[in-house]
Structures are given as structure tokens and as C-alpha cells.
Amino acid sequence: MALNIDNETNYDEYLKPINFIATSNDHQQGSLIFFDKYDVLYTAYSNDYRDKNLQLPFISTRKLHDKGFYYARHKGNECSRIKLKSELDYTFKFITGFSYDNFAYFLFMESYNSYGLKNELRLGRICENHHTPLLSYMEIRLKCNEFNSTSSAHLSIALIGNEYEGFKLNSSSQDAKLLIGFNNDANESIVCEFSMSQIHEHFLDGYSRCTQTGRGTLIPKLYNNTV
């Protein structure tokens, strides 16, 4: 595929999303760092079994100032970081993170032991335009047929023939695709495509159930309620 680039090309549009992931030696846990379009630095950490009072926040936000990185929201600090509050030992393997259409997304494998080891693929998101963004955090569970485990994903675009559509990350006129490579215990694998517009609708549906009918569910690891 040939891509014509001229002097007016915004290279950042093509390079995003860029994120950095670090994993443990056994590749079962991982951490994630990426910037959103407002130059806010998002960091996400897995529980490393240290005392809960010493654990790093599950997700935090920072801004770069003259003297280094500071929490993006200082008021109460709770608006700058999300802490784990569950008595269960959750661990996370972050797969990717990205900023898209005014939301910051976090894709990760979640493991915990509740009457047996449970593993789920979760997609969390934060509204970047919210006055206290981390208070807007929500999650959904992703799976493809009977596959629910992954170690790779990529935010991509749809191509028509051999033409590149000039994809813009924050354009509402185009729909990005989240491509996830799933696998299972039988060493079988599959690549599944998720529409970001449909993912957005799924989040909105969950928000509506919570605010309009009261049938929402608190996220167990953040509120210490039972799984």
C-alpha cells in the first residue's frame, strides 16, 4: 500500500496511539504508560502483592511541569488516582492503552481468586473532558466466542481497497477498529475486530442502566464488594 505524505501531513495522527508496557518475568503481570491528546500521562499498575497501604494506584494521571511530573488533579488527590480496595489479590496484565474520541482506554487481562482462579479481558475507559476524569471510570468485559484471553491488540482503521482514508483519531465521522488476538488453553487462536462506535454504545448502555434504573454494578476491586 502506498501512502502519499506532503508537508501538511500531521505525523502525530498516524503515529498514535503510542504506549509503553512493562511485564513481569513470567509475563502474567504488567504496567502501562501512555499520553492522551491533552498531554496527560496515564499510568496503570498491577498489584505486586505488597502491603495494600504501599501499593501503587491502579490508574493515575500526571501532567509535566517545569519541575517534573505532578498529579493532574490536586484537589483531594483522589481525583488523580484510582486505588484498589478489594481484599482479593487482583493482578493485571495490561495489553494496550490509547486515547480515542475524548476517552482514554485501558485494555487488560484481570486475574483474581474467588472460589477458583478467574481470568477476564476487561476494557476500562475514562472521560478526558470530565471535570474529575477518574471519577468517570467504567469497565466492560470483552470476549470472542469462547475465547477470553489475549496478549496482543491494536487500534486500527478500516481500509477500502488500497486507499488510506486519512484516519483522524478524534474524528467522529470515522470508526476505528480494535483488533484483538485471542487464544485459549488448547493453543488455538483467533483475531476479532471490535467497532469502537459499538464499544461506545455498550458503555452508554451500562451508564444508562446505572443512572436510570439503578441496576448498575460497582466494580468489585475498586469498592471492596463481593464478586
Concise summary:
This is Sema domain-containing protein. Helix content is 12%, strand content 38%.
Notes on the protein architecture:
- It comes from Euroglyphus maynei.
- Residues 1-227 form the Sema domain.
- InterPro entries: Semap_dom, Semap_dom_sf, WD40/YVTN_repeat-like_dom_sf.
- Helices cover 12% and strands 38% of the residues.
- It is mainly β.
- It has a single domain, classed as 7 Propeller (Methylamine Dehydrogenase, Chain H).
- Strands 1, 2, 3, 4, 5 and 6 form a six-stranded antiparallel sheet that branches. A four-stranded antiparallel sheet has the order 7-8-9-10.
- A hairpin with a 2-residue loop joins strand 4 and strand 5 (68-71).
- The protein is globular, with a radius of gyration of 18 Å.
- The protein starts with 10 loop residues before the first helix and ends with a helix.
What layout of secondary structure does this protein have?
Blueprint: H1 11-15, E1 19-23, E2 30-35, E3 41-44, E4 59-65, E5 68-71, E6 81-82, E7 91-100, E8 103-113, E9 117-127, E10 138-142, E11 149-156, E12 177-183, E13 189-195, H2 196-213, H3 220-223
Antiparallel strand pairs: 1-2, 2-3, 3-4, 4-5, 4-6, 7-8, 8-9, 9-10, 11-12, 12-13
